[in-house]
């Protein structure tokens, strides 16, 4: 019997376009939505008031993470409704271990702006455990507790949560994902009390996963959510089709070992550079567009990960702007979705329709175009090559439908269900992906199993 697309995956298609435009709340309580990291390590950025207006009027972004509590930025986002996450710098963590200082910090950095500015979360430092500073690490959880206590005193603890983001360096094992565990010395001493605090305050565990830093030429497709042969976890027998899912599940496995599967995971930071050094793999605008566009679709689709199915994830792309003063390799200054003049470096589906005409024609086509292109508008279609093997075509179906594309037409009683063959169903799924990605030649490659045709494969009520 031929394998068919998973019914759960295909059922997601109806609401897929909607979740790109608005936040959705699933039973786990974390919103499946895309935010951005608003970094300011640059000398050419627009005023915060212009940035706030730009995000509100021109994009569908409704969440912003700041790396400080800049009063000009907090004032600029007043009355926008955009959810703001602010950060206490690492250097202040020892001071926050004193409750009076924590109360003073809240009075100075939260109370003057809330509720006009929709502050939803305070982060205590960034990647503190990776700093290898015993004073910072030892004071991390007490500082978080004191900030929460200060919020309780201001009757804001139910509206503003406290957390801290971690690099994946906190894991001593991550491959395969089912073997994920925290580093010895951090697990029971720091992370267990931290997770206890998060559970008690209904706050999320936040991580900064970057497939970009973990990929090579051989795993580039896997990192970019492109069609690939997948990676099997021999312990769980679960198949992974992208690196981000593997990183998330490795974190989940580590949390499970400590007994905290009920604490939600938030992606505090992830992204892909659009330019870099010649020796870096996949560093170009096209790859950045594919990663961030596919990220957007994947985390909001409700599919979840192999170990965490049926979930959406709150995720923040790094970053909003290219930042010309950041140290390090060229790529560090080119993670932005936008140039400092607020023109897109590339488009991923976050611009409102009226703003998309501002995307430079030479940039990559949108990675998050509407998932159901209007039938008859296209002059090209993507279909399987006659030489393509059935197993490869089934993987193409699983990949495309797994992204959240509406695959109901090839389900039973759907208009494209007959002929009920893997090849016919793959033709529909592959073409939907090709159209959604903007009809780029590469997006019909599918590991050399796809071919572009000018002959419309539609038939009867089955419209391609």
TrEMBL record:
GO molecular function, one term: glucan endo-1,3-beta-D-glucosidase activity
Record's signal peptide: 1-32
Stored Gene3D superfamilies: 1.20.58.1040, Glycosidases
Entry-linked InterPro entries: GH, Glyco_hydro_17, Glyco_hydro_17_plant, X8
Catalytic activity as recorded in UniProt: Hydrolysis of (1->3)-beta-D-glucosidic linkages in (1->3)-beta-D-glucans
Family to which the UniProt record says this protein belongs: Belongs to the glycosyl hydrolase 17 family.
Protein name as it appears in the record: glucan endo-1,3-beta-D-glucosidase
Lineage: Eukaryota, Viridiplantae, Streptophyta, Embryophyta, Tracheophyta
């Amino acid at each position: 019997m031929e394998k068919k697309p998973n019914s759960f995956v295909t059922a997601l298609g109806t609401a897929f376009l909607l979740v790109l435009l608005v936040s959705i709340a699933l039973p786990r309580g974390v919103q499946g939505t895309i935010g951005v990291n608003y970094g300011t390590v640059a000398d050419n950025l627009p005023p915060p008031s212009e940035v706030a207006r730009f995000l509100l009027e021109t994009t569908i972004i409704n969440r912003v993470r700041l790396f400080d509590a800049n009063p000009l930025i907090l004032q600029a986002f007043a009355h926008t409704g955009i959810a703001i996450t602010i950060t206490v710098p690492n250097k202040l963590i020892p001071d926050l271990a004193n409750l009076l200082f924590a109360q003073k910090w809240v009075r100075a950095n939260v109370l003057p702006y809330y509720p006009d500015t929709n502050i939803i979360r305070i982060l205590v430092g960034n990647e503190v455990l990776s700093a290898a500073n015993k004073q910072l690490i030892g004071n991390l959880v007490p500082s978080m507790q004191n900030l929460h206590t200060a919020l309780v005193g201001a009757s804001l603890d139910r509206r503003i949560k406290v957390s801290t983001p971690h690099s994946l360096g906190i894991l001593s094992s991550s491959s395969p994902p089912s073997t994920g565990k925290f580093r010895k010395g951090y697990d029971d001493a720091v992370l267990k009390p931290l997770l206890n605090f998060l559970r008690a305050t209904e706050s999320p565990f936040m991580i900064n996963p970057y497939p970009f830093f973990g990929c090579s030429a051989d795993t580039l497709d896997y990192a970019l959510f492109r069609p690939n042969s997948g990676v099997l976890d021999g312990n769980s027998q679960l198949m992974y089709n992208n690196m981000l899912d593997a990183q998330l599940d490795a974190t989940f496995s580590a949390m499970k070992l400590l007994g905290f599967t009920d604490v939600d995971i938030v992606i505090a930071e992830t992204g892909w550079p659009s330019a870099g050094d010649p020796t870096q793999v996949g560093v170009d605008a096209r790859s950045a567009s594919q990663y961030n566009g596919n990220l957007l679709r994947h985390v909001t689709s409700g599919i979840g990960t192999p170990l965490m199915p049926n979930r959406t994830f709150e995720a923040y792309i790094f970053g909003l702007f290219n930042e010309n003063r950041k140290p390090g390799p060229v790529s560090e200054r080119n993670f932005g979705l936008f140039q400092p003049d607020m023109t897109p470096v590339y488009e991923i589906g976050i611009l409102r329709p009226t703003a998309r005409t501002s995307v430079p024609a030479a940039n990559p086509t949108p990675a998050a175009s509407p998932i159901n292109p209007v039938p008859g508008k296209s002059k090209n279609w993507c279909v399987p090559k006659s030489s393509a093997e059935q197993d490869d075509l089934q993987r193409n179906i699983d990949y495309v439908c797994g992204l959240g594309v509406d695959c109901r037409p090839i389900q039973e009683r759907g208009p494209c269900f007959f002929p009920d063959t893997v090849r016919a169903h793959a033709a529909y799924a592959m073409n939907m992906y090709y159209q959604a990605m903007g009809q780029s030649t590469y997006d019909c490659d599918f590991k050399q199993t796809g071919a572009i045709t000018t002959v419309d494969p539609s038939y009867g009520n089955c419209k391609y």
